[in-house]
Design brief:
307 residues, 7-stranded parallel sheet, 13 strands, 39% helix, binds NADP nicotinamide-adenine-dinucleotide phosphate
């Protein structure tokens, strides 16, 4: 096991939803964290004096990183998948990771922990996917497959590579940030038929799985970051309504989403995948949130009603 104390770690895309929680957690564990950002001044304002923020890896105060955590990428659900947007989603991950590897090739890191997503597996209503499964079909699956391919190319430099296939992350902001307003107004409802799987995971457990992937050499390869209990969209909708104490009577029609978002609706909203965290469970990773309602309550800061 690698001890994080005084280890220089470079985190790309550290200013985002996951990085905002992971970077302080790594720093608290004693690591010397540098954030690689397109706007280091903004990143410095976000993190304060303790975290060094740079535009290029060579500017890191501690010299070449021993560990790289690669989170950077344009938001997959932020904008419809036009041809220009697809290019941006691909370039901001694959070309970005290729450039990162080039810039570190003279002094390669010992460990790379690269983000990926459960979108790697494609979609299915009937199958359960584990890390042993290959990539599925569709744009999201191709994006993840090629991003992982670029990350795996670090292995040729002697770097131990782990790709963390992240599920739908529950925390303050992110997916729940978008869902909270319509649900709070009583306008929430299932999406389409509601049978599509949602392999969710609490932000605390994503941070824990990234940290474990850095320190534990056993976790090289692919690791699913999902809770052990995926739910259908209908179940998720019911649980969110219950936590917010609001009705969930208004299903969002599939045709409407398809006409607004095209293929993005079919891959991200109207279909999903039942993904099992096989390797995290085998490594006895201690999930803090294995059950959806508790995870939602924690993420939204809602306590359970007593009695
Ligand atoms: N959150 C989830 O539910 C989830 C699920 C599955 C997979 N993931 C993956 O995990 C990674 C981290 O997720 P996140 O939710 O923390 O993402 P996020 O909040 O969107 O943050 C990603 C970071 O990437 C950088 N970035 C954005 N656009 C970029 C571009 N065009 N080129 C280069 N860098 C860019 C930004 O940092 P700067 O502005 O500082 O450069 C941003 O803060 C992402 O790649 C995401 O696809 C997330």
């Amino acid at each position: 096991m690698l001890d994080l104390k005084n280890v220089p770690i470079l985190v790309t895309g550290g200013t985002g939803f996951i990085g905002s929680r992971l970077v302080p957690s790594l720093a608290t564990a004693g690591a010397q964290v540098t954030v690689l950002s397109r706007d280091p001044a903004r990143a410095s304002r976000q993190f304060g004096a303790g975290i060094h923020c740079v535009r290029h890896p060579s500017e890191a105060k501690e010299g070449p990183p021993r560990v790289v955590v690669n989170l950077a990428g344009a938001g997959i659900a932020d904008w419809p998948w036009t041809a220009a947007r697809r290019k941006e989603l691909l370039d901001s991950r694959i070309a970005y990771t290729d450039r990162l590897r080039d810039s570190l090739s003279d002094t390669p890191p010992e460990v790379l922990v690269n983000a990926s997503a459960v979108g790697y597996y494609g979609v299915s209503e009937s199958r359960t996917f584990t890390e042993e499964d290959g990539p599925g079909e569709g744009f999201a699956a191709e994006l993840c497959r090629d991003w992982e391919g670029s990350a795996e190319a670090f292995s040729a430099l002697g770097t131990r590579v782990t790709c963390v296939r992240i599920g739908l992350v529950l925390g303050p902001g992110g997916l729940l940030g978008r869902m909270k307003l319509p649900f709070s107004l009583g306008l929430g409802g299932r999406i389409g038929h509601g049978r599509q799987w949602m392999s969710w995971v609490h932000l605390d457990d994503v941070v824990g799985i990234f940290e474990r992937s850095i320190t534990d050499p056993e976790l090289a390869g692919a690791v699913n970051a999902t809770a052990p209990t995926p739910v259908t969209n209908a179940e998720f909708t019911r649980a969110l309504g219950q936590v917010l104490n609001r009705p969930t009577l208004f299903p969002v029609p599939a045709f409407l989403l398809r006409s607004l978002l095209g293929q993005m609706a079919d891959e991200l909203l109207l279909a999903g995948a039942h993904v099992s965290p096989g390797r995290a469970v085998a490594a006895a990773f201690p999930f803090r949130h294995s059950e959806l309602e508790g995870a939602l309550r924690d993420a939204l800061g809602r306590t359970a009603k007593s009695g």
